[in-house]
Amino acid sequence: MRLPHPLYGLYERRLAASLPAAQMPRHIGVILDGNRRWARSSGVSSAHGHRRGADKISDLLSWSEDVGVEVVTLWLLSTDNLARDPQELDPLLAVIEDVVGELAAERRWRIQPVGALEMLPERTAAALRAAQGATADVEGLHVNAAVGYGGRREIADAVRSFLREHARAGTDMEELAEAFDVDHIAEHLYTKGQPDPDLVIRTSGEQRLGGFLLWQSAHSEFYFCEAYWPDFRRVDFLRALRSYAQRERRLGR
User: Fold this and answer.
1) Which of 69, 132, 173, 210 is paired with 220 by a 20 to 30 Å CA distance?
2) pTM (2 d.p.)
3) Is the pLDDT at 49 greater than 80, yes or no?
């Protein structure tokens, strides 16, 4: 339910003030879902829906900075999405290329592409690499742009990377199998060296992960929001944080 102005602003401020600073997530993953359905409900093209969703990203990053989040992972395009009709996929890729360039130009956030870049058109992969290079020295919020991303693909890539590393070192396969453990996977993930996501948010009312951060989200908290991504508001973000702060995190214990 949307509260009328100015009551909405008062509610948002009170909600923000009620959040315990010591219980905010370090890493948030966001599945930006619902752009196409928002476009259909608004009577506009899918491309316009994707552009409207892209315009919301900088707001999300600003909100995350405000509460001390260190890492945000944005799922912008899955490996499954790459099978879409080119008439829809090409405009979506163009929007992604534009938005990563715009975020990099802000010089506020450190952009890191995560995904199978070799599966992307070279123009898109080049835009992602350029954004990473242009922000490599930025010390602000770390933003993972998950493009051409699939959780199963990431785990398979991690295993391949691990095996190649040991093949080059001449490690005996029997010894390798005996010594292999879960930490070896973590060391070769796209997000290696980063904290696992504490909170994963999915918009549009869908209550599934769809393969997002499969390995990293083993102990994550999940929050499913009814709003389509282009309609996602700061108050929705604050409600997700409130829900997270109210939970008892057992972390498998």
Assistant:
1) 132
2) 0.93
3) yes
The answer to whether residues 110 and 77 touch, using CB atoms and an 8 Å cutoff, is: no
Is residue 191, in this structure, part of any structural domain at all?
Answer: no
Q: What is the CA radius of gyration of the chain?
A: 19
**10-35 tens-digit pLDDT:** 889 999 999 999 999 999 999 999 99
The dihedral region occupied by 34, where left means phi > 0, alpha psi between -120 and 50, and beta the remainder, is left
CA atoms within 13 A on the CB side of 115: 31
State the burial class of residue 161 (Cβ atoms within 10 Å of its Cβ: 0-12, 13-18, 19+): middle
In a domain, 180, yes or no: no
Domain count, the chain: 1
In a domain, 242, yes or no: yes
Q: What are the DSSP E strand ranges found in the chain?
A: 27-31, 71-78, 110-114, 142-149, 199-202, 221-224
Residue 86: count of CB within 10 angstroms of its CB: 8
- The residues annotated as belonging to the active site are 33, 81
Cα–Cα dist 41/7, whole Å: 27
CATH number at residue 58: 3.40.1180.10
